[in-house]
Amino acid sequence: MTRKRVTERFPWLLPIRQAQRKIFFYVGMRLDKNTYAQTQKKAHLSHEIFETDSQMLNQNSGFDMKYQFNKVHNLKLAAKKINGLIIRPGEVFSFCYVTRKADKKEPYRDGLSLVNGEITREYGGGLCQFSNMLYWMFLHTQLTIVERHGHEVEAIPPTESEYLAGVDATVAEGWLDLKVKNDTTHTYQIVIDFDSKTMYGKILSDSTRCFDYKIYNQSLRYVREKGKVVEKSIVMRQRTSRVSGQTEEERLYENTCIIDYPLPVNIEISEGV
């Protein structure tokens, strides 16, 4: 039997623990000698490096759709702090640092979040969709991934029909962050836009794109372990020089995640040892 955390046994302690973690979290950032990106510019840099989009409303969540609309509200609040953000050479982008005061003038709404392995309503819920999209964009640039955490459990089916496993990035202020460092001589910029159903993201730069990237799963399998369905994937990145045409293959990591929703009937699930 898994031992419960103190905050699970005494939920009233959770706000105190969260405040404590945030203090240590940001004090640590002040002491780590990094320069964190925080400059926003309305003028866009001249060269597009990568663009993508993400459907915001998930009809398959199993919860009242109002929480999906609340998520859209939360995403747009966070975007006000990220849209136009400049990442200069030597600077570090931190999702938590940039969005830490996004709700200062207008509060977040209750969205869906994974807490202690279960989907529940939470203030500011749904922001992981933002960090997911940003991580996907960063993988298609020369920016160096400093910190990324995958979800331990996926409890809601993805909205996209073409599913690439293991390229998510969960965030939790005070605990988990998404960080990238600009180790290049180029300046990058994040641009975010919305329509009623979709969030759009672009990475721009002050110089032309040097490489083309392809992210893919070298392997993807589902295993039943201790009564849980576990998704195991190997995430790879292919980088091709736009000058020489030379291609390099890079094994990024192996990702493991519990799938807590019914998989399609055509998906094979093997039995674990």
UniProtKB/TrEMBL annotation:
Q: What is the top-level taxon of the source organism?
A: Bacteria
**Matches recorded under InterPro entries:** Glycopeptide_resist_protein, Vancomycin_resist_VanW
Look up the coiled coil feature and give its residue ranges.
Answer: none
Pfam families referenced in this protein's UniProt entry, alphabetically? VanW
Cross-referenced PANTHER family: EXPORTED PROTEIN, EXPORTED PROTEIN-RELATED
Q: What is this protein called?
A: Glycopeptide resistance accessory protein VanW
Q: Which organism is it from?
A: Emergencia timonensis
Phylogenetic placement of the source organism? Bacteria, Bacillati, Bacillota, Clostridia, Peptostreptococcales
